[in-house]
Specification:
The protein is an alpha+beta fold. It has one domain: Gcn5-related N-acetyltransferase (GNAT) (Aminopeptidase). Helices cover 30% and strands 38% of the residues. It is built from four helices and seven strands, in the order βααβββαβαββ. The longest helix is centred in the middle third of the chain and has 15 residues. It is globular and about 35 Å long. The model has no long low-confidence stretch (mean pLDDT 95). Bound molecules: coenzyme A. Coenzyme A binds next to β4, α3 and α4.
Length: 146
């Protein structure tokens, strides 16, 4: 896993566009790369980007903003690995909680987060404007199992 750079955005967008109903634009990734509170990580296999994870740090909280894995590399544990590494890093940096939002219908992502110990702490009604779908807010207490 390494830090994303501007040169990676093309490869990231390829995955992003087929992964989300409302994909992030190039400008959103560029903005994230220049934000002092954001960390953008990618995973490569044989020089090809196969996954990425973007999170923000605010006080003692980690907010996962984006995570995706290339379609032909899903179901192999890559997202679990990216998330576990990130949670480990966060714990070592004294972060207390991790938050994220997930579409109610996103069964794979909800399975991933539940497996990692996240629990539902809220719901944002009609959060996703294109479909009117609710967002499920999930939390992982990082200080629990240190
Ligand atoms: C969600 C996503 C990142 C998971 O990536 P992945 O590398 O395939 O996930 P993993 O292989 O690490 O799977 C971890 C767990 O997630 C759950 N999961 C993954 N794919 C699943 C599927 N198709 N159906 C049900 N559960 C699934 C399972 O609990 C799995 O654990 P298991 O293998 O022990 O059963 C991937 O499906 C993706 O990129 N989706 C599109 C983008 C997206 O929705 N991102 C999340 C936004 S909130």
């Amino acid at each position: 896993m390494r830090t994303m750079t501007a040169g990676d955005i093309d490869g990231v967008l390829e995955i992003e566009k087929v992964s989300f109903a409302a994909p992030w634009t190039r400008g959103m990734f560029e903005e994230t790369l220049s934000s002092p509170v954001a960390t953008s990580l990618i995973v490569e296999e044989e020089g090809r980007i196969v996954g990425y994870l973007i999170f923000y740090l605010a006080a003692r909280e980690v907010h996962v903003m984006n995570i995706a894995v290339r379609q032909d590399r899903r179901g192999l544990g890559l997202a679990s690995w990216m998330m576990s590494r990130t949670m480990e890093l966060a714990r070592r940096n004294s972060m207390e909680t991790c938050f994220l939002e997930v579409r109610e219908s996103n069964v794979p992502a909800r399975g991933l987060y539940e497996k990692l110990g996240f629990r539902q702490v809220g719901r944002r009604k009609g959060y996703y404007r294109e479909t009117g779908e609710d967002a499920i807010v999930m939390e992982l207490i990082l200080s629990d199992d240190t």
